[in-house]
Design a protein that fits this description.
Elements: E1 2-9, H1 13-24, E2 29-33, H2 40-45, E3 50-51, E4 60-61, H3 62-73, E5 84-86, E6 90-95, E7 103-107, E8 112-120, E9 126-129, E10 143-144, H4 148-151, E11 161-165, H5 169-179, E12 190-195, H6 204-216, E13 220-232, E14 235-243, E15 248-252, E16 255-258, E17 262-265, E18 281-282, E19 295-297, E20 302-303, H7 311-329, H8 344-350
Parallel strand pairs: 1-2, 1-8, 2-5, 8-19, 10-16, 11-12, 11-16, 12-13, 18-20
Antiparallel strand pairs: 3-4, 6-7, 7-8, 9-17, 13-14, 14-15
Helix pairs in contact: 1-3, 1-7, 5-6
Length: about 350
């Protein structure tokens, strides 16, 4: 269990900047995100696409923006980013018992926080992989949605046969990455790419590279949709695929990696007692506090008159929420506005000379 002044739910761009602002004001802070990497929508949906409307940055990719924000927040995320908890979906947010100030927050894995304030920066909701239902194959050790480097676990398919399902950038990138590892000490024995049709929704350069690997035989091409799987003694052995010719074809396989993109879901957030308007949380525009005391919301998840769903607005909201949270937590302290250019205290917190 972690005791903290503030917990940020959502580690997208606004969430990472929220961590920075809270830490800069002297609050201890942790952050949680359902995705296995920081950066939220920017890093997950358009990591290589250019962004042009970040102040002072003429152009950067979604991944570059996430990297910059993570580095900026690093003085407050712990030596090894141990205050940043990824791959954790928050399920419970409830007031602490016995008149204590703050909230008990629990994730799907049982990770628990006692926090005085909560800031929700969940964007359009928790981004989760689009699932694939395959008859005979339940969620388990043979069905995957992330690459090992994304989930932080050891590769489960060393010297085994992997089928990648999908036809977008995520699927094609994974196929190339795994195909390059075939024959290595930690790589798979064979990589197959399965899609319902011989057309991809991917960047042209990526599609060209994958088709070259298919032509060379480094990636096996499977056109069709899964009909059912065969699991014997708890081990996946075969995937039966309905092909474009109307026949069912059998493919030997040990693991299926589904890469069909991500979709936002409010999920458990709707059970936390918050007021919702069209899947957004109304806030007081002077503090960005929700209807629940000590819970704030910034970024795309909130709503108020004149709301604009822009990154620059989310950064402003995160700043306002941080100042409001500090004043709510420490009402008897004097709160003077300080600047990083001149404040010795702020520079100490940032670890700069």
């Amino acid at each position: 269990m972690h005791d903290t002044d503030a917990l940020v739910i959502g580690a997208g761009p606004v969430g990472l900047f929220q961590v920075f602002q809270l830490g800069l004001l002297g609050l201890t802070v942790h952050a949680v995100d359902a995705l296995p990497q920081p950066g939220g929508q920017c890093a997950a949906l358009y990591p290589q696409k250019p962004i042009y409307d970040v102040p002072g940055v003429p152009v950067c990719t979604g991944l570059e923006l996430a990297d910059h924000l993570l580095k900026q927040a690093s003085p407050f995320t712990g030596t090894h980013h141990e205050h940043l908890h990824l791959g954790e979906l928050v399920e419970i947010v409830e007031p602490l018992p016995d008149g204590q100030t703050g909230y008990r927050v629990v994730t799907h894995s049982g990770l628990t926080f006692h926090t005085k304030v909560v800031v929700i920066t969940a964007g359009a909701g928790a981004f989760v992989p689009r699932s694939m239902k395959i008859a005979g194959l339940d969620e388990g050790p043979h069905l995957h949605y992330y690459l090992p480097e994304e989930s932080g676990v050891a590769t489960p398919w060393v010297h085994q046969r992997v089928v990648i399902a999908g036809g977008g950038d995520e699927a094609l990138s994974a196929a190339l990455a795994l195909a390059a590892q075939v024959g290595t000490a930690t790589g798979p024995a064979r990589v197959s790419l399965m899609h319902r049709r011989d057309q991809f929704q991917a960047e042209p350069e990526l599609e060209t590279a994958v088709r070259a690997q298919i032509q060379a035989g480094s990636i096996e091409w499977i056109q069709g949709m899964p009909d059912h799987a065969c699991v014997n003694d708890g081990r996946l052995t075969e995937l039966h695929v309905l092909g474009s010719d109307g026949s069912v074809h059998t493919h030997a396989v040990d693991h299926v990696l589904v890469r069909q993109g991500l979709s936002p879901k409010l999920g458990p957030l709707s059970n936390w007692g918050l007021t919702l308007e069209r899947k957004q949380i109304p806030v007081d525009v002077s503090t960005f506090q929700t209807a629940l005391p000590g819970i704030y919301a910034a970024g795309d998840i909130n709503t108020y008159p004149g709301k604009k769903r822009l990154l620059v607005c989310g950064f402003h909201e995160a700043t306002m929420a941080a100042y409001a949270a500090r004043e709510w937590l420490r009402p008897d302290e004097p709160h003077h506005l300080q600047y990083t250019t001149t404040s010795t205290l702020l520079k100490q917190r940032l670890g700069v000379a």
